[in-house]
Specification:
Chain B: It comes from Bemisia tabaci. The complex is a heterodimer. Chain A is an all-alpha fold. Chain A is built from four helices and no strands. The longest helix of chain A is centred in the last third of the chain and has 36 residues. Chain A is flat, with a radius of gyration of 21 Å. The two termini of chain B are about 40 Å apart. Chain B is mostly helical. The chains are: A mainly alpha, B mainly alpha.
Chain lengths: ~100, ~90
């Protein structure tokens, strides 16, 4: 239900402006945009943590050792690097092949 | 939800709605963490499932949960730092 609510606020924010001259709706809308961003940020961390936990953490012990900590933070950065690189190259491939697909 | 369609909420109604949204997001977040933790710590701590969860497995699970949280917090910090860097680059 929440998803429906949030997506309807983000995707048709312009049509919903017409009925709300009142500033109150705007406040609510801004709140929802921020909460949605926060939720997306959290979801991203869950995903990264899962990937990097598998890569970096061996047997759980009394604390994360510094090697594991370094691995975890490098893992996040390198994953983002790969994601950017793949996106970039994929875009290039698409534009190069654009003629061929038609 | 019906009140939303009318788009005229009283201040109190709006506050209540905001509270509910926050609570539901927090709940979803906790459920996600719980699910992932269970899966990861089961994998790490129960190599060969026996007839019961023995005490070393239980200790392992407890430790694993703590480390998973540590890891979560560290990943969160690294991601925030990276986001800030990327924003400055724009």
């Amino acid at each position: 239900m929440l998803d429906v609510m949030l997506s309807s606020f983000s995707s048709d924010s312009s049509p919903s402006d017409k009925d709300g001259g009142g500033g109150g709706d705007k406040e609510l809308q801004e709140f929802l945009v921020i909460e949605k961003q926060r939720a997306q940020f959290n979801a991203q961390i869950h995903e990264f943590n899962e990937i990097c936990w598998d890569k970096c953490v061996e047997k759980p012990s009394n604390k994360l050792d510094s090697k594991t900590e370094t691995c975890l933070s490098n893992c996040v950065d390198r994953f983002i690097d790969v994601s950017l690189l793949v996106t970039q190259r994929f875009t290039q491939l698409l534009s190069k092949n654009a003629g061929g697909f038609n | 939800m019906e009140a939303l369609a009318g788009a005229q909420l009283t201040g109190a109604q709006r506050d209540e709605l905001m509270d509910q949204v926050k609570q539901q997001i927090a709940l979803a977040n906790a459920q996600e963490l719980l699910g992932k933790m269970t899966e990861k710590c089961f994998k790490k701590c129960v190599q060969k499932p026996g007839t019961s969860l023995d005490s070393s497995e239980q200790k392992c699970v407890a430790m694993c949960m703590d480390r998973y949280m540590d890891s979560w917090n560290l990943v969160s910090k690294s991601y925030s730092t990276r986001l800030q860097k990327e924003r400055q680059r724009l």
